[in-house]
Specification:
The structure is a homodimer.
Chain A lengths: L1 H13 L3 E2 L2 H8 L12 E3 L4 H13 L4 E4 L16 E4 L6 E5 L4 E4 L5 H8 L4 E2 L10 H6 L7 H4 L2 H4 E8 L4 E5 L11 H5 L7 E9 L1 E2 L3 E8 L3 H13 L6 E5 L1 H11 L8 E8 L1 H17 L6 E3 L2 H12 L1 H7 L5 E4 L2 E2 L5 H13 L7 E4 L4 E8 L4 H20 L18 H5 L1 H13 L15
Parallel strand pairs in A: 2-4, 3-4
Antiparallel strand pairs in A: 1-2, 5-6, 6-10, 7-11, 8-9, 8-10, 12-14, 12-15, 13-14, 13-18, 16-19, 17-19, 18-19
Helix pairs in contact in A: 1-3, 9-11, 9-14, 10-13, 14-15
Chain lengths: ~450, ~450
């Protein structure tokens, strides 16, 4: 047994940095979404890049799969051990290695969480803004090309990872990128590893771009009669050159779930939640211009949250959206979908998805990032009911097809994992085969997170 | 002769879309920089992606090199036919295929120039801001990951190409990216082809991000006692969150060259040239805040160019910098260098380069993009004097080494071509070998722009 041999060799080299305890295996086999538990055969806890190199080398010697692990918050089973093997848990590689105030970057190990990083940054005047909701690790966020509420202003992980160190399938450590803000020196390997979901190597260090904490912030919420008006207001805002730091929408079903969960009193209508960052003058000007645009598009009077505490409440409500929606159907489990379309097609995509869900067996509130055209339906199913699960998967499948038909993508921020494999050909055609060529060239044994993103025959 | 056979087959298929006229070969063998003329054996003028696919397939059948050509403004001999072969000139594939005002993108063929695109956009309220100075084609700019004066605000080609179509070495056409503003659906192939200098395939279509034309613009120029003060002023500005649309520096030697060429009256000192975009209020606020920061750092009073005509003059002076510097030594030819360092190291890098040039035989004014840490020395040599050429290449070599030692990169925007091959190992170590693995996987015959960016044994 190749995997068994790998684990014996690992235990010999690493002692108690390797565990095969059933509870650890089960924990690392669990996905945040609807996938069954797929445990690895062992979990390794490296303390250094050198450890990771030795772990991968031993696994390569024995054709044993290697799966990276941050905190397990990915949503398409990116960390499930579909063929068993060794999960590499980066919990002991979570250091903040360097902050440069002048050049506005941080060098970190992959196991640091975004909240931990921002906690360390709080006195520097700088921040790391990418915010997928979950308190994910930077390594995990880079691997799935995560984004979230602030991408409309600060970009996704693609835009915020300047360089990285990765251990490839042959056990070598490579470094990509530099500390300069741009480069034309060869293929963009940083961009290749960001979003590769651990299928080309394990990220062992990252240099991420930091941004100035905004001098002033204002946030607010307002209601619209329908999604089309809400989206039109946002499109006009973007074209006017007004920079939003966040621009989120929730549909009427989500608003009702918020009311029940957080005690808010939102009308039974779609809403926009917006935030501006900048100088006090700029924020005031932008808020006012945005308010005018909203009025022109039939939006309600804005409720502004000027005080930090009110803003915190507003965004806590948004960040707890998943739990609010889950609580709206007691005992339910959620299948979380994720598609992204051109902004001009967002209202159509949401309306068609809304109608599709309403014609199905199950509830599914919709919410998302309007500025990116990215949205999620939280499909609530009775976990004991196979028909409901199938209905949810069918809805998700039609969402993916709809997104492609509208010029969009099957996933805006959750990644492919195993959940979106079936739609890769429809989105990419021959370009998926080209991705497979790259995978085969860099990982000929197919040991790095096999079964995810790529289907190797 | 494999190449001869390829050309015969091409002529049979394409008739007068293929030329072997000596003047065309010479024209397509010429580099904008110091490299000798390296002509191809034929030039092809495709009219469609299908044409490009058939050209590449025929070349692949005969192991014949294929080199892409926009207008030949690259600076590291990216278009030179080092092993002969067929140059694919995209002059007849220069159409603007689609503009989306709502989703703010343009779909173009690779042969369109940035000025032609912006001319078409002038009535739309949108613009394509990436500006490398030369009126390059979009295909060429994407292939070298070009940037220029506006990258500090709008990003480089990496940030502004949303997707593309490329013909790979096997003659297949693949499509990457989507019309959505972000995606997590697999490896970032768009990012892989941008900056690949035609070594992985020929770009046959691009979808590029457009930006709103700014409501208000202001630009200005001021002098500093030294580079450190100038750079410190810029660092403070960035940290304050003030967004500059352009922030350029020229050294004292460049200022004198401007005076002689454009009749300006700049003091014999380093200067900053800056531009702000935004609402009238925002531009006024930012200009004033920047003026205050400049004063704090010992800068001179600002000369603001508020009127469009004055701004045009200011930036024409900057864009003609190369010619102004060239004219400062009659009969000279220029070797243009390009490195990029962390902004905190920019003053040191420029000062050390300045001292190095002053200790050499040749003049070399320095100018660059402070907001990115990217700068160029224009090394002026007597083309008949081999010693001067060697001195210039040695200076360029030390600039590259210095950039790496300071955490930067050997090229910020000009690319690798053949001019920077010698420093790829120093910058990337084993990561260059990984680039080579990708090249070999996607182009096993090494026919796509061979001899550039990668050294295949």
């Amino acid at each position: 047994m190749a995997i068994k041999d790998a684990i014996s060799a690992l235990k010999e080299s690493f002692g108690d940095q390797i565990t095969t305890s059933l509870s650890e295996l089960r924990l690392h086999g669990q996905s945040e979404s609807h996938f069954r538990n797929m445990p690895p055969d062992a979990v390794a806890f490296p303390k250094s890049t050198d450890d990771v190199q030795r772990i991968v080398s031993i696994c390569a010697d024995h054709d044993c799969p290697v799966i990276g692990w941050g905190v397990g918050t990915s949503l398409e089973a990116q960390t499930s051990a579909v063929r068993g093997g060794v999960t590499v848990d980066f919990r002991d590689m979570n250091a903040l290695l360097e902050i440069s105030q002048e050049d506005m970057f941080a060098r970190v190990q992959p196991g640091i969480s975004r909240e931990a990083l921002n906690h360390e940054l709080r006195a520097t005047g700088l921040m790391f803004p990418v915010d997928p909701g979950a308190n994910a690790t930077l390594g995990g966020m880079a691997s799935t090309r995560a984004s979230g509420t602030t991408a409309v202003r600060y970009g996704t992980m693609r835009d915020n990872v300047m360089g990285l160190e990765a251990v490839t399938a042959d056990g070598k450590a490579i470094r990509t990128g530099s500390l300069a803000r741009k480069s034309s020196a060869g293929y963009d390997l940083t961009g290749l590893f960001v979003g590769a979901e651990g299928t080309l190597g394990l990220i062992t260090e990252l240099t991420v771009r930091l941004h100035g904490q905004p001098e002033a912030t204002s946030a607010g919420i307002c209601a619209f009669q329908n999604m089309t008006d809400a989206v039109d207001a946002v499109t006009t805002t973007i074209q006017t050159g007004i920079q939003m730091a966040r621009i989120e929408f929730v549909d009427a079903a989500t608003a009702l779930a918020f009311n029940a969960y957080s005690g808010s009193e939102m009308p039974n209508l779609p809403h926009l939640m917006v935030e501006f960052h900048g100088s006090p003058t700029a924020v005031a000007e932008q808020s006012q211009m945005f308010g005018d645009i909203v009025k022109d598009h039939g939006g309600s009077e804005f409720e502004w949250a000027i005080e930090a505490e009110d803003r915190k409440k507003l965004w806590a409500m948004r960040h707890n959206g998943y739990y609010a929606i889950l609580a709206s159907r007691p005992g339910a489990r959620a299948i979380v979908t994720d598609v992204c379309v051109p902004i001009s097609k967002l209202a159509q995509a949401v309306d068609e998805t809304r109608a599709d869900i309403e014609g199905s067996l199950i509830p599914g509130p919709i919410l998302g990032h309007v500025g990116d055209g990215n949205f999620h339906a939280i499909l609530l199913i009775d976990p004991e009911n196979a028909k409901e699960k199938q209905a949810a998967l069918d809805l998700s499948s039609r969402m993916a097809e709809r997104a492609i038909a509208l010029g969009g993508t099957i996933t805006g921020e959750h990644g492919v994992g195993i959940g979106k494999l079936d739609y890769m050909t429809a989105e990419h055609g021959d370009a998926w085969a080209l991705m497979t060529q790259i995978k085969k060239a860099l990982d000929p044994q197919n040991i790095m997170n096999p079964g995810k993103l790529i289907r190797v025959n």
